[in-house]
Amino acid sequence: MVRFMRRHPRTLFTGIVVFWLGFGFVWTYYGWTNSKIFGAGWWFDTAGHFLAGGGLAWSLMFFFRAYLFRGLFRFDRGFEVGLVVIGCIALLATFWEVFELVWDYYLQPAHFHWLAQAQKSALDTTVDIVATLAGAAAALAAFSYISTLLYTRIFPDEAQQEEIERLEEMIEHIALQMRHAKKNRRMATFRRVLHTFKQKAAELAS
User: Fold this and answer.
1) Within this chain, do residues 23 and 95 fall inside the same structural domain, yes or no?
2) pTM, to two decimals
3) Could you give the CA distance from residue 67 to residue 13 in angstroms, rounded to a whole number?
4) Residues 92, 56 contacting (CB under 8 angstroms)
5) Cβ(170)–Cβ(74) under 8 Å?
């Protein structure tokens, strides 16, 4: 699945852009209303948070797997990448709710009074964050299923080659760490020798 992402980045990136443009249009045009809690508009907004969490999870997985983690970070298990994605989405969801708070108390009354407010109550804020994280968890579970079961069954040769490439990258990473460790040991030895030399020179000078 990772190999597929790296071989077709433009196609996947285009799909992500189209998704977010469509999402922004639908949930801005239809979902931005002064609805009551547990009303139809409120449920539509909650569904939007759930879908946004899923979209963010897939977008971050694509970005991390295809670009960022390649050569910069090393994760042996997909579970670790999932935790990073969930953490990023939790931060984004929190920042979004803070923005909605600023919108309701300052921006909307002062500059955009003809538009609807964003938050209904503390319950609404809590449900929004929970729905976003639930959508992210569901998307990661679907991603894991697709990448481990369906992808392996449909493209067995591709999956095997991807595993070989992953092992090769892991070996390169270990070799790089060993070179750094040897270099650090040589530097530590040189510092000890230099320190001893300075001590002896000071003793002779005195």
Assistant:
1) yes
2) 0.63
3) 12
4) yes
5) yes
